[in-house]
Each structure stands twice: as structure tokens, then as C-alpha cells.
Design brief:
Layout (H helix, E strand, L loop, with lengths): L15 H4 L15 E3 L9 H10 L2 E5 L15 H19 L4 E7 L5 H10 L4 E5 L6 H4 L7 E6 L2 H15 L6 E4 L6 E2 L15 H15 L6 E4 L5 H10 L3 E4 L1 H4 L8 H9 L5 E5 L5 E5 L2 H7 L17 H5 L5 H9 L23 H9 L4
Parallel strand pairs: 1-9, 2-3, 3-4, 4-5, 5-6, 6-8, 8-9
Antiparallel strand pairs: 7-11, 10-11
Helix pairs in contact: 2-3, 3-4
Length: about 375
């Protein structure tokens, strides 16, 4: 059993083992604990979850994708404008929950309105922008008027980190404030590799990429950029193992998705709570890369080649097999259905650890287990 013991800052008294954990500093922002809550769309990690995580001492992350369709402001024609407004409003709500916390926005490079997401996040007062689903090579230009916003690319290999470092330094005179390394073996959602066989490739494991990237940054590039490990992180043992590999922080997504404070519907959370390890499957997403999901009736039909898609409503992705060729399905519609708890028609992204979720937890309970002192 772990016993909660608040400290003077509203966090938890840490066990001796965790006192040796690294400090995670992202630009000018330093959370109390080296833990980032992963960005999960559509609307799975919104302002309530991000605010609760930031208040507990981690980095709370709002996923910017698809927010408009979950808003009463959306009338079916104004998707892009509403999405910008909701991003700003969500940041304000998260900061009202955690006035002294660190709030991030996860913005996907693959979105057609990526730059609008980034600018709206900056205008809304975000502390950190975490960006993947492509290489964010122009991100510094988009945020030039907001120098206090930390910029953290997501990569799956050192090969992806190199051009970001070089281009940012050459063209913008700055470097990333951190790298999230999300590898495909255990992660949820889109897996950051192009081919199914790469999902299990040891070359893309955290055990391989973290030390390699740390060595590149420290020895070859000669820079002090924190590396954050993501994909399959569940408990304190996982965190310690990543720190031993050289990571300065960890990112955790799936475990936070079914929390009481999570922004998704109860139906969505019930699907994750009831999912077993054998219910997890990797599919080819309409964006052209593998994705890890819960096997639902919708996924079964897709795997059998007979899925029916709801119509595309926003042209939200720069590359989409459904929009361009009417192959697969509209992933935005399927993710919205999942957010609403529609088990038969939804696409429920998850990490490989989803089978370990057996009840809804509170964010504070997760932090207590990860950070708190053992009794």
C-alpha cells in the first residue's frame, strides 16, 4: 500500500529511490516531477485531464486534434475556426485548474491546419508544444513571437532527431527543448514507423534508441537536451528503468486515458477498463502507418475488408487514404465515435498496457503510486 503524504507544494513526499530522479527542464518550465501525460486525441486528453496532471506535478497535455467536433460551437461548416478557439479555451481551463502547473499542447505535423494549432496554442498561453506525426522542421518559425514556449519534437529514432537539430540551429538559431522518444513496441495510437515489421524491430526499442540518442546529443552534437521516454510506461519500475538508460523524463498516455478526470465519455473509459491484453491489435491506419487499437466490431470489420465509413467532414489530414482514394475509413469520425463511447463504430487507440487497466483511477492516485512514499 502507498500512503499519500502531501508536501508544501501540493505534491507528494517522495521515496528515497525517487529522490535521485532527474529534474526535467523544458526551456523555462520545470514540473515538480519528470512525468509528461501523453497527448491523446480526439478529446481524450483535454483540459480536465491536463489540468489535473499539471496540478499533481507533471506536465499536462491537451491534444489539439479534432476538438471542434466536440464543441457546441461547431455547426458542421466551421471546423477550422472553432478548433482554434477551442484550443485557446482549453488552455485557459487547464490553467485555471493548475495555475502554477505546466501545460502542453500536442500538435500533429500531419494536420492540414497544423500551423493554426501551433499559433492558437501560443496565443492561449501554453507552456510547451509537443509535436510529432511528422518532423516539425518549421516549428521555431511558427513560434518566433513566443520565445518562452518550449518546443519538444516527438521522434522514434536518432535518425529523425538529427535533421531537426541541424535545421533548427542553422535556420532559427535554436535547438529543441527536449525530445520525446516514442517507439512502436508498446505505444498507443499511431506508432511512428512506416512498416508493420518495424513495430517489433529491436532497433526501434526504447532500450536501443534512448542511449543512442543521449550519446548523439551529448557526445556528437555537444548539447544538453533532455530525452523523454514514451511507450509502455506504466509504473515506478518502468520509470526507473528509463532513467537508467539516460532519459530525463517519461511520458505516459494509456494509464491516464481512463481516469476520473479524463475528458472522454464514460463509454470510452468503460471500453479501456474492460479491454484485455488479447483485445489489442495493430492495424494499418488511413494515414498510412501502423496504429495500436482495441479490437472492436468496427476494427473487426476493417480487418475483414468490409468496413463502412462515415463521410469525411474536415479534410483534417495532409495525407489520408480515405479522403484521397476512398480507402479504409475516415479516422476522425471513428475517433470521435470512440470519444463518445460508441463501441460498435469507434476506433479506440490504446497502448499495449491497456489490459492492466481494471478500474477508473484518479490522477492523484496514479501520482501517489508513482511518486509517493511507501508505508
Amino acid at each position: 500500500m502507498l500512503k499519500q503524504r502531501p508536501d508544501d507544494n501540493g505534491g507528494f513526499v517522495v521515496k528515497e529511490a525517487s529522490r535521485n530522479w532527474p529534474k526535467l527542464k523544458l526551456g523555462k518550465h520545470e514540473p515538480r516531477y519528470p512525468l509528461i501525460q501523453g497527448g491523446m486525441g480526439v478529446r481524450i486528453s483535454g483540459p480536465q485531464l491536463a489540468g489535473a496532471v499539471a496540478k499533481a506535478g507533471g506536465v499536462g497535455t491537451i491534444a489539439s486534434v479534432g476538438l471542434a467536433v466536440c464543441s457546441p460551437l461547431y455547426d458542421g461548416t466551421n471546423y477550422f475556426e472553432v478548433n482554434k478557439e477551442v484550443i485557446r479555451n482549453d488552455i485557459a481551463l487547464a490553467k485555471s485548474i493548475a495555475p502554477d502547473g505546466v501545460i502542453a499542447v500536442n500538435a500533429m505535423v500531419a494536420l492540414t491546419d497544423y500551423e493554426d494549432h501551433v499559433r492558437s496554442a501560443c496565443e492561449g498561453g501554453v507552456d510547451v508544444i509537443i509535436s510529432g506525426a511528422g518532423l516539425p522542421l518549421r516549428l521555431p518559425a511558427m513560434t518566433a513571437d513566443y520565445p518562452d514556449v518550449a518546443l519538444v519534437p516527438i521522434v522514434s529514432s536518432t535518425k529523425a532527431a538529427r535533421p531537426i537539430n541541424r535545421r533548427w540551429e542553422k535556420h532559427y538559431g535554436r535547438l529543441p527543448d527536449g525530445f520525446v522518444v516514442e517507439t512502436p513496441l508498446y505505444a498507443g495510437g499511431h506508432l511512428g514507423v512506416m512498416k508493420p515489421e518495424q513495430v517489433d524491430d529491436p532497433a526501434y526499442s526504447l532500450e536501443h534508441v534512448i542511449p543512442e540518442l543521449v550519446a548523439y546529443l551529448e557526445d556528437e552534437a555537444g548539447v544538453d537536451i533532455p530525452v523523454i521516454a514514451a511507450g509502455g510506461i506504466w509504473d515506478r519500475e518502468d520509470m526507473n528503468r528509463m532513467f537508467e538508460l539516460g532519459a530525463k523524463g517519461v511520458q505516459m498516455g494509456t494509464r491516464f486515458a481512463a481516469t476520473v478526470e479524463g475528458d472522454a465519455s464514460q463509454g470510452f473509459k468503460d471500453v479501456l477498463v474492460n479491454a484485455k491484453a488479447e483485445d489489442v491489435v495493430v492495424i494499418k491506419s488511413p494515414v498510412g502507418i501502423p496504429g495500436r487499437v482495441v479490437r472492436t466490431p468496427f476494427v473487426e470489420e476493417y480487418l475483414e475488408g468490409r468496413v463502412k465509413s462515415k463521410p469525411c467532414f474536415a479534410n483534417c489530414l495532409a495525407h489520408c487514404a480515405y479522403r484521397n482514394e476512398r480507402k479504409a475509413f475516415c479516422i476522425a469520425q471513428a475517433l470521435v465515435d470512440a470519444f463518445r463511447g460508441n463501441y460498435d463504430e469507434g476506433l479506440f487507440f490504446c497502448g499495449s498496457n491497456v489490459g492492466r487497466i481494471n478500474r477508473m483511477e484518479k490522477v492523484d492516485e496514479i501520482f501517489e503510486e508513482l511518486i509517493g512514499e511507501e508505508s
